[in-house]
Write a structure and sequence with these properties.
The protein has helices at about 1-20, 30-35, 40-50, 55-75, 80-85, 90-100, 105-110. It is mostly helical. Helix 4 crosses helix 6 and helix 5 (about 80-85) crosses helix 6. The relative contact order is 0.12.
Length: about 170
């Protein structure tokens, strides 16, 4: 099982690298499965078992996350961004973006709002498995911190004097 976790993590790292380098042909399930030495069906089943989501769903959400960053940080046209990240048309990109984030890409570009991004999966602890995480000590970058103001919200407190511990409650 350990080897499968390591293989899936390698495939996940490859996905991000291929998206950044715009190698759409290498992102095919067939190519990633062959690279690991397994059939498409078996690779896709193990990917879902370990990561908790379908391969295609993960790939689409990562492409959208990269596209969202480009929408926010660049002035590149929406059609160019959609084609860059493997969407067949502006409409297909807009539908997927609206479904994932609840806002149209053009509206997000005008007024960026906080959205929930699909970050890279880490299906197992990289420190235990001795891959990844080792470069943190070698980085010379700075850590950026920022404060976020959360709007007022209600707090509900339930008191139960009969329970002895957490699980009783």
């Amino acid at each position: 099982m350990y080897q499968w976790h390591k293989n899936i993590q390698g495939a996940i790292n490859d996905i991000d690298r291929y998206i950044k380098n715009q190698k759409d042909d290498a992102l095919a399930l067939k190519c990633l499965a062959e690279k690991q030495g397994y059939s498409e069906f078996y690779f896709s089943r193990k990917f879902r078992e370990i990561s908790g989501m379908q391969f295609r769903e993960y790939l689409r959400s990562r492409r959208l996350a990269f596209a969202l960053k480009d929408l926010r940080d660049t002035e590149t046209g929406i059609l160019d961004i959609s084609l860059k990240y493997g969407f067949s048309s502006h409409e297909a990109f807009s539908r997927a973006f609206k479904k994932a984030y609840g806002i149209m890409p053009s509206a997000y570009r005008r007024h960026p709002v906080p959205v929930v991004l699909r970050t890279i999966l880490r299906p197992f602890d990289c420190y235990i498995s001795e891959i990844g995480g080792t470069t943190m000590a070698n980085t010379k970058g700075t850590i950026k911190t920022y404060l976020v103001t959360i709007p007022a919200h209600k707090f509900l407190h339930i008191r139960n004097y009969d329970s002895i511990g957490y699980w009783d409650f």
